[in-house]
Amino acid sequence: MSNSTLTPPGGAGSTAVSGRDGPGRGRGRVLPPPVTSQETVLIVVIALLWLVLSLATPAFFTAGSIVPLLVATTPIALIGIGMTIVIITGGIDVSVGSIVMVASVITAQTMVDTGLPLVLAVPLSIAVGGVLGLVNGVLIAYGRVHAIIITFGTLNLFRFVGLQIFGSSTVEGIPRTLNFFGRGDAGRTLGIPHAFLITIVIAALAWYYLRHTAGGRHFYAVGGDANAARLAGVAVRARVLSAYVVTGLLAGLAACFVLAQGTSSLAANVGSGLELAVIAAVVIGGTSITGGRGSVLGTVLGALLVQTVATGVTQLGWPTQLSSLFVGVFIIVAVGADLLRRRTRSDS
Amino acid sequence: MRAHRYTTLAAGLAAASLVLAGCGEGSGGSATGDSGGEGGGDDQPTIAFVPKLQGIPYFEAMNTGGEQACEELGCEWLYQGPVEADAAAQADIVRSYIQQGVDVLFVAPNDPDSMAPLLQQAADAGIAVATTDTDAPDSVREVFVSQASTEGIGQTLTDELMQAMGGSGRYAIVSCGETAENLNSWIEVQREYTQSEYPDAEITDVVYAGEDQTVATQMATDLMNSDPSLTGLVGECTSSAPGVAQAVRDAGKIGQVQTVGLGTPNSMAPYLEDGSAAASVLWDVEALGELTAWAGTQLAAGEEISASPDVPGIEGVTYDAENNVLLLGDPLVLTADNVGEYDY
What we know:
The complex is a heterodimer of chains A (about 350) and B (about 350).
Chain A: H1 27-30, H2 37-56, H3 63-88, H4 96-114, H5 118-143, H6 147-166, E1 188-189, E2 192-193, H7 194-212, H8 214-224, H9 226-231, H10 236-261, H11 274-284, H12 296-315, H13 322-347
Chain B: H1 2-30, E1 46-50, H2 57-73, E2 76-79, H3 87-100, E3 104-107, H4 112-124, E4 128-132, E5 144-146, H5 150-165, E6 169-175, H6 181-197, E7 201-208, H7 213-226, E8 230-235, H8 240-250, E9 258-261, H9 265-274, E10 279-282, H10 285-301, E11 318-320, E12 325-327, E13 332-334
Helix pairs in contact in B: 2-10, 3-4, 5-6, 7-8
């Protein structure tokens, strides 16, 4: 475990990686457990919900119901992976909804105009997202203004760009090129939805990278204390920059998923409010909003929980507004749990 | 270099403010009939329309209709709306039109209650005020140009769905905003009309997807899963209508589950063609714009509107003099056969 020589302040905290641990400390104390208590709770809650829903509506636990649920989870989970990294570094990106808007309108319009095939449409969308993420990253890494201000600005700027492309209209007659990522038959192989599989693979890679490589641990160091990280030799700016670029790239890919799940027409309100849904998934997943701690696994579970609640409320025939109530409670409980953990730690 | 840029900026701002000031004066004069110094000013009333928001196909189509009608009828058509459906931003635009002193002001209010005092202000300034698309019933508006009656929409939606479902079965409604008054009153008609006219049919659930089509699609999917005996879905607004049809298509249930909705022609065309949507009920949005412009010319001229007015190019317009409601006529039913005739 000589990946890193960092000990952020409060380095006794479970997330800190240290090569200078005293002899009495075992390996188990160096890395956080593979599955944190919050994630365990989430897994149990989701499992219970699925069980209850299966008993309440027999149709819930069937492929026809689970596949669309998993597919609907993917845009938020995918962007959530990037958002988790951003929030771990102590930042935030509220422009992701606008990035999805710009990437989806450019991709949709190009497909309508030129009949762009899938293998080109996806890279195009990802590239657009990456460019916008780079704009965010450069402004935040070199601008010395807090990320929420910068991305709140770019949220509006990107939205303006998107509206210009929409040009007071909707994009109509979008071909079914992206059905590969959809909830229909074209979107699955052996019953497994492609969009979900891709999201899980990317999440697993991100999870491994963040947890088991020195580069990954640097993101936590930046979020724990950027100055200490810099003094310890972490390229803080490069880390911050890359977090926003990755988020942009993932938002670009998520735009393809959004298009695949939408209809053959695209309206200018695409992606609006998406940033809040993503941040909700990240927070419910146990990532500390103040940075330095969090995991991609939690975020994916958070996204899955939110979608399970939405689907459950609809399938049970409950009033739609109850999903807002549940999501609100989850966020507050999750943040409360985070606070409690921190207090317990500082007391000990 | 930098100083130069600021000078240019300052000059630009100064020029812009001059233009704005000039605008205010010129149009202020137009209320008394000498706008812009051009000869035709006397019989060219200025009619301004403030939509709920600008840049969506629905209001752009209304704008197209209004512009065309004004060209034929001889009026100046102004169109500006907020970029988001926001009551405060809309109020600012209304204020700017009051300041400009237009002759007739049409508003499709985002919030009828907060718009009422502003309409009073406009009327006090000598402007003829009216509403179109969405009413502000407790205001001083002289006319409300209505796209369709609540009964007309609710009953036509039900009839079209029942025709596809064979007059019986269970169906659910995917609505949009939970507080949208027009949608809720249509749903109320659908409930009553289904109960009285189609005793073998039943509305099982009403869910609210907001204006988000992916949410509408997912909710429609969930509704079909939770109730395998469901054979019909209604998309209550322009984002839900293609959404429920897409859900049926994705689930491979075309023909098993019928859908109708309030969708625009271009967005519904692919679904009407493959049968995932049976019909889309709307009104001719361009004609609504034309009728709005026509009503504006009547208001500007101070003409009374008769019970069945003769509007050039539009059939079946009626006027309810008691409530001052000008009604476009029966709803438009879009099917695979006629959807190609409209382009918005």
